[in-house]
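Table 4 source record.
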Amino acid sequence: MRLISCRLQNVRRHRLLELSFGRQLTLIAGANESGKSTLVEALHKGLFLRATATGRGVDELRSRLHAGLPEVEISFEAEAETWRLRKRFAGAGGTCQLSNASGEALSGPVAEDRLAALLGFEAPVEGRRIAQLPERWAHLWVRQGDAGLNPLSGSQERYDHNRLVEQLQRQGTSTALESGVDQLVLEQIQQQVAELYTTTGRVKAGSPLAEAQRRSNEATQALAIAQQHLVELEAAMEQWRQLNERLETIEQDLRPALQRELELQRSINLLLAQLQPLLQQEQERDQLTRQQQQGQQEQQRLEEQLAGLVKQQNDQIQQRDQRMRQRQELAEQLQQLTQRQDLLQLLLDLQQLDAEAEQWREHQRKLQQLQAEAELLKQQLAALPEITADQVRQLRQAEQGLAQATARCEAMAASLDVLSSDQSLLLNGEMLNAGERRCLEASAQLQVGSGVLIEISPGGGEELPHALAQQQHCRQQLEQLQQALHLNNSEQAETIERERQRLERDLNNLRQAAKSIPWSGLQQRLDQLEPRRQTLLQSLNTQQPLLNSMADQLGGREPRHLDQDRLHNLQEQLRRLKRERSEELNSCERNLQELEQGLQRQQTSLVQQRNRKSELDGSLKVVAQRLQTLGKQQPEDQALKSQQQQLERWQVELETLQAGRRSAVDAAQQLQALEQEKDQLLSQRGQTEQRCQSLGANNPVAELEHRQAAWEDAEAERQNLEQRAQALQLLLERFHRAQSSLAERYSEPLQAAISPYLSALAAEGARAAQQPLLAFDPQQGFHDLQLHQGEEAFAFERLSGGMREQMAAAVRLAMAELLKPAYGDVLPLVFDDAFTNSDRERQDGLKQMLLRGMDQGIQIVLLTCHSDDYLSLLNDANNNPPEVIGGIERTLVKLS
C-alpha cells in the first residue's frame, strides 16, 4: 500500500490543503502549530474511522476557523490498483466514496468494508469504539510524543502480529514449532486433561475425578451425619434433665407466689373501682389547670408570631415586585440580542452562499477550459493518419526484409565493368559503352566485335532465382504497406505515431484532470443557489431598521459589507452577551420563583397560625367553664383517706411480690404462661424420651466408626486421582514450556532484520557491539525488547529518551520491511516529530537508517520542525530552494 496524494478541507486550521507523496520519501516541514499533526491525524482517521462516526473522534477534526464539515480525500495504491478515497465526516450523514482506475466505484458501508479489506482489517472503527483507533497501524503511524514507546508492547493488534508471523513463515526463516509425533503426544495429553478438567480449570462433571470427589463428599457427609447423631443423642439426654428441673421449679416456687399476687390484684381493683370517680375528678382538675396555663402561654406566642409573619410578608412582596421589573428588562435585552444574532447569521449565510457560488463558477470555467483544450487535441489527433505502433513495426520489418533480400541477391550476382574498348560490345544484343557497369543476375551472352561471343553466368547456382523471387516479394509487400499508409518510409511513420501517442497522452491527462471537477449539474447547482440568495436578501431587507441600528454602533459601517471574520467576531460577542443575559434572566427567574414560593408558604403559615389562635381561644373558654363546674363538687375527705391507706398497704405488698418475680408481665398472664409452659415441658419431656430411645436404638458409636472407614477409602481414591490429574497438568505445562522454547526461533529473523538498521545508526566503531534482543511466545507474541551493548543488555524502558526513539524506529522499519510483501510490496511509515530527543551526533546515523528503509521499498513520510536536518535525504536538495523542492521519488512540502 503506497500513499499518492491527499486533500484536506475544513480540517481544524486547514481550510484547504493539497499535497503529493514521493514514492520513497516525503519530507513535510513546518513550525509548531502549523498543522503537521493535524495532517497525520486526518490521514489516519480518513483510512480507518467510519465516515458516519460521531463523538469525540469526529469533533477533533472539525474546524473552529472555517465553516463547513471536514473532508478528507486520499489517493493510494493497493492490490496493483490506484484508488481514490473521499470521506466527509458529518455524523449520521457522513459519506464515503471509493473508486479505482478500473472503473470500480463504491459508496457507503460497501466502500467502508472494501477500504478496510484493502488495509488488512475486517471493518472500520466505529465512533463508539474510538479507543480502538490508536491500535490501527500503530507500528507504522508514529504520533507526536509516542516515538519513545515500545512498538512491541500492548496488544498484538498494535503491530500486526498475525501477519508478521505469517510473513516470517513464508520467507522460510523460521522452522516448525514441533514435529508430528510431538503434536500427537501433546494432543493425547491435552485429551486426557480435557477429560478431567474444563477449559477454565474446573473439574469436569462426569469424569472419574469428579465421581471420586462426589463419593468422597458423600462419605464426608455421611461421617458428619453419624457424628451429628451422636451429638444429638447427648444433647437430648441433657435436655431431658433440664426439663425435669424446670418442672420442679414451677410447682414448688413460682405458682404459689403468683396466686397470692392475683388475690391482692383483685382486692386492689375492687377498691380502685370505688375510689375511681373521686380520683378522676381530682386528676381532671389538675389536668385542666395545666392545660389552661399552657394555652395562655401558647396564645401569647401565637400573637407575637402573627405580627412577625405579617411584616415579613410585606417585605417579600416588595422584593417580588422589584424582581419582576428586573426580569422584564432582561427579557427585552435578550430579545434584542437574539434578533441581532439572527441578523449576523443571515449575513454569514449570504457570504457563504456567495463563496459557494463563486466556487461552482470557478469549476465551470475550469471545465470549459479543459474541454476547449481537449477539443483542440482531438482536432490535432484527427489531422494525423491513424498509424499504430504495430503498423510502424511492420513497415520497418518490410524495409529490413527488402534490404536483406537485395543484399543477398547482390552477393550472388556477377558484376560487369566496361573500362575501355576499341570494339563494339553487345550484352544480350544491347550495346555497352565505355565506363558502363552491369549487374548480371542471370546467364548472359557478351559479343565482342563480330567474331567473339562470351557466355557469362553469375554465382549462387540455383539459389539466385529464389533470392530474386524473395526480393520481388519483399518489394511488393513494402509497396503495399507504403500505399496503405500513404508514406514513403518507416521514419515518417514512426514520427507520426510518436506524435499521436503524445496527443493521446495529453488528452488522457486532460480527462484525468476533468475527473477531479464535480462537473455534473454545475449550472443546475448555480441556479439552485440563486433562490436561496434572494430569500436571504429579502430577509435582510425586512430587518433594515436593525441593520441601521447596528451600523450606528459600528461607526457608520454597513454590517453587510463586513468581512466574514469580523462578522464571526461580532457573532461571538453577541453570543457571549446573550449567554450572560440568559444567565442573569435565569437567576432572576429562580429568585422570583423562590420569592413566590416563600410568599405562598408564609401565606399558608399565616392562615394556619390564625386558625390555630381561633381554636386555642375556644379551647381556653371550654377549659374555664369545666374548672368552674368541678370547683362546686366537695368529696368526703375522711372516707377517702381510709380507703387510700388500705390501698397503699395492698400496693406495697403487691410491689414486693412483683419485685420478687422480676417480671413486668401481668401475674395472671404469667400464671397462664406457666401452665402453658408446664404442659409444653411435659410434652417436650415425652418427646425427648422418645428421641433418646430412637437415637439409641442403633449403636451411634459403631455407626460412626463404620462411616469413618468408608470416608478414608473414598478420600484415598480421590487423592490418587487428583495426583494423577496434577501430574498430567504438570506434563502439559512442561510441554508448553518446551513449545515456547522452540517458538523463540521466531525472534531470530526479526532480530536479523533490526540489526542492519541499528548498525546504520551506530558509529563506525560501535556497529558490531550493538545488537537487539527480544523474545517470542505463541500466546504473548513478541516481547522483552532489549538492546545488547558490550557485555550488558538493557531493557527498552531503561534506555535514554533519544535511544528509545532510535531503537523504536529501527524496529518499526524492520517490521515494515518484513510486512510489505503482504501489502503490495510497499508500506508507508509515518514519523511525526519522532526524533525530538535524539542528539545532533546521531543525525547521520538516523539518515542512513531511513535511507536503508527507502532502499528496501518502504515509503517514508517524515514530519519535522527542522527540515534542514533532513534536506540531504532529497535527490535535489542542493539545487532547488526548500519551498519548491520536489521530485518523482522524493518530495519536500512546507506548511505555513
